[in-house]
Each structure stands twice: as C-alpha cells, then as structure tokens.
Design brief:
Helix content: 55-70%
Largest sheet: 5 strands, parallel
Structural class: mainly alpha
Shape: globular
Distance between the termini: 56 Å
Oligomer: single chain
Number of helices: 30
Radius of gyration: 30 Å
Strand order of the largest sheet: 4-5-6-3-7
Strand content: under 5%
Length: 655
C-alpha cells in the first residue's frame, strides 16, 4: 500500500490522520490497474510493522508471552477486546523475523469436509498468526479440537505460532494447552498516548506536563487502544487548525469533542436545514470532503436526482451562491476552491449519522456512490477517498453485503479504469479489516470459482491475490488463483501466470499446489488446465532446491508420490509435444548427475510406467541428450541408466 501523508497512526482497522491538513490516501497498489508511484503492498506491510514497533508500549504479560514463544514455539494470547492484543501478537512475531519476510496468518480451510486449520500452511521456520479472536462459537469449537495437533506440527517444523483466543471462552482450554496461555493486559494508557504524540511532532515539554482534565476523563473510560491512537491524531489535527496557538488543553478538548462523534451537532444541523438541497449538499460535502466546490455542488445535484427529490423551482439567477450555501452547512472553501467543514471531524459525523439514522437513504447512497466514482470532475484522490469513506460505513455485519454489487458494477466494463481502480480500493480496505476481512476473502473465493468472469473483475481479483492477500494469506491467494486459472478463456493465461509467479517467489507454496493437484488427479473431476499447471510447476530446479533446514521436495516420499501421479496424468491426457519440453528439462537435470539424479529419473519413469510408448520416447530423449552432456564420471552411460530404470518400471529387471 502506498499512503502519501506526513503523519499517520495505523490501527488494525484504518489509517488515522496525524498531521496538518487533509489526509490523502493514494493507493497505487497494482501495476496492471494504476501507475505505481509508491511502495508495493508487501513493502508497506513490512513498514507498518516497523512503525508499530517504534510506537509499541509492551503490555502486561508480553514478556511472559515472549518467553513461552521462544521455548515452546507456540503461545496462546488471551485478553479483552481493545487491550492491544492484536498489536502484541504482531510484535511477538515481528521480533523474530529474518530479512524482509513477515508473518503469515494460518489459513482456515474453505472445504468444511476437511480439518478447519490447514496444516499444509505450516512450513519450516515460518512465523504464523492464528486469529480466533472474533470467530463464531462453532468455529472456535472446531479450532480448539485441532489446536494440539497444530502445535505439534509447528514444533516439528521449528516454526513459531501465536494464537489469538476468543475472549471469555478460553477458560475451557483442554489441560494440555493451558501452559501456553498468557493473559495480555492493557498497557499504561497515558504512556501510549504520549508516545503517539511524541512520535508525531509534539514537543516533549508539552506532552510531559500534567494531563488536562479532559485527557484524564477520556483515559479513565479505559478506551480501546485504537481509540487512543485516533484521539492522538485528532489532537494533532486540532493543533493544526488552531493556527499556531500553543494551547495543549484546548487541542485535547477539541479532540475529545470530535472523538465523541458530534452526533448531537449533526442532528441540530439537520433540524435547521429543512431545505432538501442543503441537506444533499451537507452529505455530498461529507462524502467528498476536501474536493473542489464545483465537484461537490454537482455531486449534491446528482444525489437529489438519485433520491427523487423535486428540483428547485426558482430561476437560476435567483439561486443562492455557493459561498453562501456552504456557509449555511458550516463549510468553507480554501484558496484552491476545495471545501471543508469548519469543525474538526464534522464530515465523519455527518457520514455516520446519515448512514445510521436515515436508513431509507442507504440504497440511494449506494447508487450515488456507484455513479459518482465515475465523475470526470473528481481527481483520483477524490475518488479514492469517496470509496474509502463509503466502504468504512459498510464494514459491519449488517451492511457488508452491500459492497459486492458495487464491485460488480464498477468492473462490468473492461475499459473502465476509474471503476476498476475503485473496485481495487474497496476490496483492499475490506480485506484489511480485522473483523470483516474473512468475509471478503470468502467473497473473492466465490467469484474465483465462477466461469466467465468479466475481464476487469478477473484482473482485480488476480491483483488482490498477488499483491494484498499474498502478504498474510498466501495459501488462500493460491487457492483462488488456482480456481481462476482453471476457468480462464482459451488463450488467456493471466491467472495461471500470476499463480506460477507467486509460487516461484515463495517455494513453500509449491507443496500446497502439489497437494491440490494430487487431490484432483486422484479423483474424477480433473480440470483441463490442471495437467498444464503441473507441467509449469514441475520445475526440477525448484524441486531439488533446499532452503534453510528444509529437504528438497523431490527427496520427500509424499511429494515424490504426488509427482509420479502427476506425470502419469500428464502422459495420459496430454500429447507428446505438450509434455516433451518439461520431460526434457527433467532428463537434463538428471543427466548432469548430482545427488538427485535417481530421484528425478524414478519419478519421471514411474509416471510413464503404464505407457510403453512414453517410456520409449523418454529413452530416445535420453539418448539424444547424452550427446550434449559432459563425459560421465561413472562407467554407466546416462542412456543405460535410463534404460535400466525403464526395465525396472516394466518388471523386466529387478532394481
């Protein structure tokens, strides 16, 4: 992700503004969808963890959790919502990282017929987070039953696992898991606030003075850590709006009022604004806060049309001017003609109030956002913020299903760059949400299993899988790309190319794909694309490589069986000209000798054991290859070694 700003506080839900002026979030994630001007999402995720570490205040229990994770490789974190337990889990894993790699979330299987916790997501030396803090009771029951076997698998692979337990239900842990449970308490709230403020430009002498009464009242409510971060951001904003007046207590008072939501102020404004056109202007200004006055005005006119409000009967020359109309709703234009409310956070308050208190307006607002995003009057930043703000309103259990139709609308036309970008922005924010991310990963899964996806939607999903989901949910990204690769139009290989690229960039994902292909090859529902995918992935270089403590895949018995089965399917379902290049690469890798020669030949020849014609062709290929190979160190020529293994496979010769 590429946030362009001066200061910001990141919570687990959203970016929090921490500097003067407006926050402009330009998410240029995808080379295929927008000009990349900043960091890729993967790099952003790593930078976010570095930022979190600089601002992190270790809570009670953190040291104990660190010791258990170091000695036992698994720790179970419990704690009340809002205590900062998610940040604590991320920091425990971040401290153990090596290089640029970061932690991954342990995937939950989409297939309910299989175990919930995907053990194939546990690879050697990986850092894993399993977030069960928000799961339903039935999911927790299944996860609880499987945790012991997961812990054993983590220990076997010398990985590290941090589990976030559902609060209030972890007292039912089986005795074998109790020693790994740690209760995370709340860090010292005032220290958390001061650290945020100090990191974002407030002088130590200002922060260290006795806390104003309003700060004591705010912290006395024991707010969630994310609210403390937001409060700090509002203090910085209030300081900027004060125009240089050094009054820390006044900044805090303004921030406290803004944090309260200003619901009563919005209600008062609506009572005073009986004119429908002014109410539309109020909401349009809130949704497009910081956009040019002309764009906001026209968006308000569009909103009136969307809700079917009667147009004003007065002649144009009798209409009130824009300055007066904006003044009536408490907004003003700056020197560039951009519109903002005078009161801090009033735009957010208007959005939230309109969404929660005016339910009849929701469907119209959905339609209005869908069309307004396409307006040529808006800058790219305006569109991004409009999408961000509307998505934020919908990220609740009750309203989240309203977002999918927007994505489908925006991606219905292949050449619609603005709509495609908007779909990316919406889904990226939704995937990042701690509570709702799983729902949208599931939605992307459902889309990925459809045949005939619109090209723009397919491009969006491919990009989200490779750029966003691959960071912390790489196994789920692979599953979705695999489904799409199977269903691509003839001659189109975008999903397959993305899948192969993702697997080549992370060898640990290769095992997952071989598991998936073997499951399909062993049944009767093999997709036409799967044999071709196997040929792309059956790269002898990847299969013979070692990484860390890991043995090469080709020396692992389970993988060798999968490879043999895969070659058998390929030889039976693909013509010779399709499999010959890949088989040639295997023979070349085996022909150069080395410790994996026998393993490579055994897999390849055993895969063709049921087909005499295939074995004959492999022998001819080996004989032709031998002419280009350097002299063998042993007395056995390469062609003879291949012939010997063919005879063994056919039962003519004993191994």
């Amino acid at each position: 992700m590429s946030d362009q700003f001066q200061h910001s506080v990141f919570t687990r839900h959203a970016q929090m503004h921490m500097g003067p002026g407006d926050l402009h979030v330009h998410n240029n994630y995808f080379n295929t969808l927008a000009d990349r001007q900043g960091q890729p999402f993967r790099s952003f995720a790593a930078d976010h963890l570095l930022w979190l570490r600089r601002n992190f205040v270790p809570p009670p229990g953190f040291g104990q959790a660190r010791e258990i994770l170091a000695s036992q490789r698994t720790v179970l974190l419990d704690g009340a919502p809002g205590s900062g337990r998610v940040a604590a889990a991320q920091m425990l894993l971040h401290e153990l990282r090596t290089g640029e790699d970061t932690f991954r979330e342990l995937p939950l299987n989409d297939d309910e017929s299989r175990p919930l916790l995907a053990l194939d997501g546990i690879a050697d030396d990986t850092l894993l987070l399993l977030d069960l803090s928000e799961v339903e009771e039935k999911v927790w029951v299944r996860a609880h039953e499987e945790l012991h076997s997961v812990r054993a698998e983590v220990y076997r692979h010398q990985a590290r696992l941090v589990v976030l337990l559902p609060y209030g239900r972890a007292t039912r842990l089986v005795p074998a898991l109790v020693p790994y449970r740690v209760m995370i308490g709340r860090p010292q709230e005032l220290e958390v606030l001061r650290r945020y403020l100090r990191r974002n430009g407030l002088a130590p002498k200002v922060i260290s003075q006795p806390a104003p009464a309003v700060v004591a009242a705010f912290l006395g409510r024991r707010p969630p850590m994310e609210d403390i971060a937001r409060f700090a951001g509002l203090v910085i904003d209030a300081r900027a709006k004060a125009g240089g007046a050094e009054d820390y207590a006044a900044w805090c008072q303004e921030a406290y009022a803004a944090l309260g939501g200003r619901e009563a102020e919005v209600a008062d404004s609506l009572r005073e604004l009986q004119d429908g056109s002014l109410r539309a202007l109020l909401l349009a200004t809130a949704m497009l806060h910081g956009a040019h006055a002309d764009a906001v005005h026209n968006a308000a006119v569009s909103l009136l049309a969307t809700v079917g409000h009667p147009q004003e009967d007065l002649p144009v020359l009798q209409h009130a001017g824009l300055v007066e109309r904006f003044r009536e709703i408490g907004a003003e234009r700056d020197g560039k003609g951009c519109v903002r409310f005078k009161v801090l956070e009033f735009d957010r308050a208007v959005r939230v109030y309109s969404w929660t208190q005016l339910p009849d307006l929701r469907q119209a607002l959905l339609e209005w956002v869908g069309t307004t995003v396409m307006s040529t009057e808006l800058t790219e930043a305006d569109r991004d913020q409009l999408v961000e703000r509307f998505t934020e309103l919908c990220l609740q259990d009750r309203y989240r299903q309203m977002l999918a139709p927007l994505v489908l609308t925006w991606t219905a036309k292949a050449a619609n760059r603005a709509g495609t970008r908007a779909a990316v922005q919406l889904l990226t924010k939704a995937l990042q949400d701690q509570r709702q991310g799983w729902f949208f990963r599931r939605q992307i899964y459902e889309w990925s299993t459809r045949t005939g996806l619109p090209d723009a939607l397919a491009e969006v999903i491919i990009s989200l899988c490779t750029e966003v989901m691959a960071v912390h949910h790489p196994y789920e990204a692979v599953v979705r790309l695999h489904h799409m690769a199977r269903r691509e139009h003839q001659g189109t290989t975008r999903a397959r190319d993305a899948l192969i690229q993702l697997i080549r960039a992370d060898r640990r994902l290769l095992r997952l794909m071989f598991d998936r292909l073997d499951y399909q090859f062993s049944g009767n529902n093999t997709y036409e694309a799967d044999p071709d995918l196997f040929l792309e992935m059956a790269d002898p270089g990847l299969l013979t490589a070692t990484e860390g403590r890991s043995r090469s895949f080709v020396t692992q018995e389970a993988v060798r069986k999968q490879l043999t089965n895969g070659w058998d399917v390929v030889f039976g379902r693909r013509p010779e000209d399709a499999w010959s290049p890949a088989a040639g690469r295997w023979l070349l890798a085996a022909g150069t000798g080395g410790p994996h020669q026998d393993a490579l030949l055994d897999v390849l020849i055993d895969g063709g054991a049921r087909r005499t014609g295939v074995l004959a062709r492999l022998y001819v290929m080996a004989r032709e290859l031998e002419r280009s190979l350097p002299p063998a160190e042993s007395d056995v020529r390469f062609r003879d070694r291949v012939l010997q293994k063919i005879n063994v496979a056919q039962g003519v010769q004993v191994a």
